[in-house]
Amino acid sequence: MHSDLLQLLTKIAPLNESEKEIIETRFKLISLKKGDYFLEEGKISKHIGFLKKGLVRYFVHKNDQEATFEFTKEGEFVSDLQSFNTQTPSAQNIQAIEDCEFLIITNEDLQYIYQHTEHGNLLGRVILEHRFDVMVTQLMAIYMQNQEDRYRHFVQHYADLTQRIPQYLIASYVGIQPQSLSRIRKKLR
Questions:
Q1: For residue 51, what are the CA distances in angstroms to 48, 57, 79?
Q2: If we measure between CA atoms, which residue out of 102, 83, 96 comes closest to residue 41?
């Protein structure tokens, strides 16, 4: 059940059997159905999730519409780290766009891993740095790229997901209406 998570973590730092056992006991399995929320705006993020199966999107409400700004797939971590770290309400939503399975961990259990494994702090730092890089890239794209560039960015970074993500969500990510997405796709062919 935890093999994908342990495989990822051992790429960052070596783990002995005792450390693997600690990690396995601290991460709990949950499932979400398509459309369910991992986190809703206004609520405090209580977990970081490792996505075992499925696909989620991050979005905010902007001008009475949903603005999608990220997708996360299997083998990646899911969370609003700001809300998780500060225990303040989130401004974003994280929603399953497919049936999903997560291994989730609470802040208390994460602190236990930091304190009781040799490389726990390193693992946490590398994962946080990766999430930070993803968020900065998304933020820069929103401010620095036009709609065609955003679509190119989507295709470049999410090419393996284009058949799994509904067109209206791709349009939301690009920041346009679905009809305009068709025009951009034709233009770029």
A1: 10, 12, 10
A2: 83
Q: List 47's β-bridge partners, or say none.
A: 106
pLDDT computed for residue 181 by the predictor:
85
> What does the alpha-carbon distance between residue 167 and residue 70 come to, in Å, rounded to a whole number?
14
Ordered domains of the chain (ranges, CATH): 3-144 (2.60.120.10), 146-189 (no CATH)
pLDDT of amino acid 26 = 96
pTM higher than the cut 0.70: yes
Segments in the chain below pLDDT 70: none
Closest CA to 52 of 86, 98, 85: 98
The stretches of 13-119 forming alpha helices (DSSP H) are 17-26, 81-86, 107-116
